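Is this the right way to post structure tokens for a design question? Let me know if I should format differently. Anyway, here goes:
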């Protein structure tokens, strides 16, 4: 039974950050009391919906996006919801509080959120300790960024420091150059800056792979607000960088005229239903430029099974949720993973598998 529609009105009476904390605490209590996954309907789909990507085995194609569990405090409880992968972060070398509140807003009429949180996290060392102790055995990615106080010209040092710290405990690393809430960060999407950053990370990874005897995949997370020329330039950099995949997309700074909420003018990144068409446009454009074999993680406005199918159809290999989980609850994870399993099973039947 899906109880979330009954619980959501109570959570939505709280401030957004407080509501998320309460929900995660309740999830942890339920998981401990039941001594089993809180929502395991997706488990039945796993053997069919599993996918191999970047040398990793994803139990299913539905993941949790970065930002929900920035400091890996709730990894085990979230893993119990049936995600095929969880991405923690964004983490920075040093702890930082992020931007002052209020910094997260619900746009209920628009099924959306606006956040300007600004990479609030406990710092990479604390995150590494929690990842070392995790019980969750699914794929765990770590999203890395720079501290707000680090000058843009020194950003590569922060990213490299994070890569070195998390290398032994991360299944993959996502390079976040597209958050709108750290001043100047999106300038790292410019070709020369991106090339220099990825070159520094590739050099560091080469050394780390020898020490740890494993090659950790790296992905770059891009914005939904890129035009065709921007996408061409980024793809040119990606092709020669050794990066293993791309995550599309982060939140948008645009405000569609259809928004109805009184919070629509708030500064920050917009996520949820209004983001979906922008994200799908970028995913489709990247797939056309990068070809069939290049890994793409699709994220942005996946609020239903139908939106998930559209994101896959645009070219995503794996999808991620954030705002959809806030509005629809854990049942959305099961709906998406089970639907993808049925589609995969149908493909197998068509081939006589």
């Amino acid at each position: 039974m899906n109880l979330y529609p009954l619980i959501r009105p109570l959570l939505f009476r709280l401030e957004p950050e407080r509501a998320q904390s309460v929900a995660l605490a309740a999830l942890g209590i339920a998981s401990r009391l039941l001594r089993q996954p809180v929502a395991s309907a997706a488990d039945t789909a796993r053997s069919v919906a599993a996918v191999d990507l970047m040398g990793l085995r994803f139990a299913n194609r539905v993941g949790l996006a970065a930002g929900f569990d920035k400091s890996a405090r709730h990894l085990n409880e979230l893993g119990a919801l049936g995600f095929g992968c969880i991405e923690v972060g964004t983490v920075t070398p040093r702890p930082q509080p992020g931007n002052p509140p209020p910094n997260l807003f619900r746009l209920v009429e628009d099924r959306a959120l606006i956040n300007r949180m600004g990479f609030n996290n406990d710092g990479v060392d604390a995150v590494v300790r929690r990842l070392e102790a995790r019980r969750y055995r699914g794929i765990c990615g770590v999203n890395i960024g720079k501290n707000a106080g680090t000058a843009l010209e020194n950003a590569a040092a922060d990213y490299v420091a994070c890569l070195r710290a998390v290398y032994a405990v991360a299944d993959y690393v996502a390079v976040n150059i597209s958050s709108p809430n750290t001043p100047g960060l999106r300038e790292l999407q410019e070709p020369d800056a991106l090339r220099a950053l990825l070159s520094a990370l590739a050099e560091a990874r080469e050394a780390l792979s020898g020490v740890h005897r494993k090659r950790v995949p790296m992905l770059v997370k891009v914005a939904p607000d890129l035009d065709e020329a921007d996408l061409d330039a980024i793809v040119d950099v990606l092709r020669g960088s050794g990066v293993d995949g791309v995550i599309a997309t982060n939140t948008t700074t645009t405000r569609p005229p259809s928004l109805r909420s009184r919070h629509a003018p708030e500064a920050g990144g917009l996520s949820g239903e209004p983001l979906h068409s922008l994200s799908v446009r970028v995913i489709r454009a990247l797939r056309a430029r990068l070809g069939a074999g290049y890994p793409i993680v699709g994220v942005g406005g996946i609020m239903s099974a139908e939106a998930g199918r559209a994101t896959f159809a645009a070219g995503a290999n794996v999808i991620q949720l954030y705002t959809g989980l806030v509005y629809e609850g854990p049942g959305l994870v099961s709906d998406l993973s089970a639907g993808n399993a049925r589609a995969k099973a149908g493909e197998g039947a068509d081939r006589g598998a």
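Format looks fine. Someone answered above. Worth noting: The chain has twelve helices and 13 strands. The chain has a mean pLDDT of 90.
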